[in-house]
Design a protein that fits this description.
Shape: globular
CATH superfamily of the largest domain: Spore Coat Polysaccharide Biosynthesis Protein SpsA, Chain A
Number of helices: 13
Protein name: Glycosyltransferase 2-like domain-containing protein
CATH class of the largest domain: Alpha Beta
Number of strands: 11
Number of domains: 2
InterPro entries: Glyco_trans_2-like, Glycosyltransf_2, Nucleotide-diphossugar_trans
Length: about 350
């Protein structure tokens, strides 16, 4: 039976003419149809506008000057009429029962302000077998209380956990519109860095109860046009977002030490990726941002190599990268043997 809630769907889009139609068809095919679908065209310069025109009888289009993903989401949020709002990025996919299962949270527990669903990555049209929730570290979901079936609830702040592992994505999120607006909506202060939605998720999981659907009903497509597969940009983006939170969001100040540790961890991961890619200028830059206490002997060695003249640096860099690759292969064979 259809729930009494009115549901709006917001789809921000920028230059996704080739991917947007399949995303919209997934939204149209929901077992619990959306009451309205708002597509915010964020200044697209390809043929996205023509694609939107072909769907004009089924969607509401809002055109804005290119302002970034967070701004586009907020524009859609402010124009939504539903008491519940779901967000879907223009390249992602929903299973037919997604809206039905997400809306169910507000019948199970009226105090929920936000709910998240599990997802799988989609590579070349194939949904991967292991979901994001399944990849979480041991003990990550220990505080999750079952409400009904695969619907669960977090009754305490989840910020500390999210600093260690981030399984929540915008396309898997449904919110109580009035309460989300009252909290400021999507955090635009972080600008357009990769992973800019992380700031909003951290703030939302500090306001329990939080609904968690342990069922992968969302597909996150990996393709040449998105950045979520670029680990270096993700690590740098997350570090920037976390620093911005410390500087501007007093509500999360009590997590300062944990946030600082997370920043250092992400910068260190970026340091390693940059070295492996041969971006030694970035290695030198990152060294100045990383606390000496978290650097090990191999980090100092890599930094020393990065500072050498190119005639000495390049052969040493190649040898250390090759040695690291060989060591990784040996470890893999050893694990297989056991």
């Amino acid at each position: 039976m259809r729930e009494s809630h009115r549901v709006s769907v917001v789809v921000p889009v920028f230059n996704r003419a080739g991917l947007l139609p399949e995303t919209l068809e997934c939204i149209f095919g929901q077992t619990h149809p959306a009451d309205e679908i708002i597509v915010v065209n964020d200044g697209s310069t390809d043929t996205t506008s023509q694609v939107l025109t072909s769907f004009s009888s089924r969607i509401r289009v809002i055109d804005i000057a290119n302002s970034g993903d967070m701004v586009a989401k907020n524009v859609g949020l402010k124009h939504a009429n539903g008491d519940l709002v779901a967000f879907c990025d223009s390249d992602d996919l929903w299973m037919p029962e997604y809206l039905q299962e997400m809306t169910r949270f507000w019948s199970l527990w009226s105090g929920i302000t936000v709910a998240y669903a599990d997802f799988c990555e989609v590579h070349d049209g194939v949904w991967q077998s292991e979901s994001k929730f399944q990849q979480a570290p041991e003990g990550f979901w220990d505080d999750l209380r079952t409400l009904e079936g695969e619907h669960g609830c977090l009754e305490r702040s989840f910020v500390s956990s999210l600093l260690q592992y981030q399984p929540f994505f915008p396309s898997c999120m449904m919110v109580d519109r009035k309460r989300f607006l009252a909290a400021g909506g999507w955090d635009e202060s972080v600008g357009r860095v990769v992973g800019c939605d992380f700031a909003t998720h951290l703030q939302r999981v500090d306001d329990p109860p939080i609904g968690v659907l342990r069922r992968p009903l969302v597909g996150i497509r990996k393709h040449a046009q998105n950045f979520s597969g670029d680990n270096l940009r993700m690590e740098l983006g997350d570090a920037y977002v976390l620093q911005t939170i410390l500087d501007r969001r007093d509500g999360l100040a009590r997590f300062e030490s944990e946030i600082q540790r997370s920043i250092q961890s992400r910068l260190l991961a970026a340091f390693e990726i940059a070295y492996a890619r041969g971006d030694l200028d970035l290695v030198r830059e990152l060294r100045g941002k990383i606390d000496e206490s978290v650097l090990g002997r191999t980090h100092w060695l890599k930094y020393t190599i990065a500072r050498l003249p190119s005639s000495l640096r390049d052969p040493l860099w190649r040898s250390t990268v090759l040695a690291g690759t060989a060591k990784g292969r040996w470890r893999g064979k050893k694990r297989t043997a056991h």
